[in-house]
Design brief:
about 25% helix, 2 domains, Aminopeptidase, alpha+beta, eight-stranded mixed beta sheet
Amino acid sequence: MGATIRAATSGDLEKLIPLLDEEFIFGKGRRVSLAQRFPAVYCRENLDNIFVAEENGAVVSALVAKRFNWLENGEPFRGIMFGAVYTHPLRRKEGQASRLLAWAAEKSGRDGTDFAVLWAAKSAFYARLGWVAGDCGVLGEAASHAIAVEPSNEDEVEVMPANLANLRPIEFIRQRWLDPLILRNAGNYRQLPPPAETVALLRCGENPDRAGYALAGYCGGTTIVYEMNGHPDSFRALWHKICGQPERIIINDQPGSASYRWLAGNTSVTWQAKPLAMWLPLSAKADMARISGWYLPYFDRI
């Protein structure tokens, strides 16, 4: 008799979090539990989106999911992202994760979800299950002393914890300058993507039509820039503030974005492709011809 696949219970969650922390956080030398990093995902309110394969009362495989809304040219889409695909070390290479992932994707398609996405360094495993690689994301890196620019209106940059920021002006900027984009709520800004230990929001400009902001994570001497959006006139002040202290700066971006063009023209950031996204269309309107040009910011991933 094979494992039973189902949505998780509260009891499952209590057992899963230590296993997933060891696999994806502590076992990689990182700190801060997944439950603290993604409080809207690893919680009782999201149990319908945490899936387990159980056999003889024990969880042999699991994965977590986060539902989200996507907007392109004013057209809404329902998306779901999968993460923390886990199989007990003694039960690997049995196809447990494959069956669980296929079950979760099929369930998502039945409930009206348009597409699924996940991020994987080894794409072959997911390609066998019908997932398609397509990622226009790039990773930039440099030492801060090599990319600092002359300050401009530095005093206008306000820095605050992302989870305490006034989000209304930020969402105005995002929807003014980005298309397509993932829609966010206050809970989304409570995320703490690994390996960051804190996340700050930097905002510049009082005029909403000319303002800009950046989201940055901090881990030791490294700053991770998740995004820099808004009017390009704000980027110089934002970037100067970002470059103030770190020994190393990592930037998540996509070619063609306003921030990428500004950084390419004003700094010596070294870029490399980061093709990690895998997609699974679940409805007719979300085909790969459309999806292949989409980019989900690192900050929103699980």
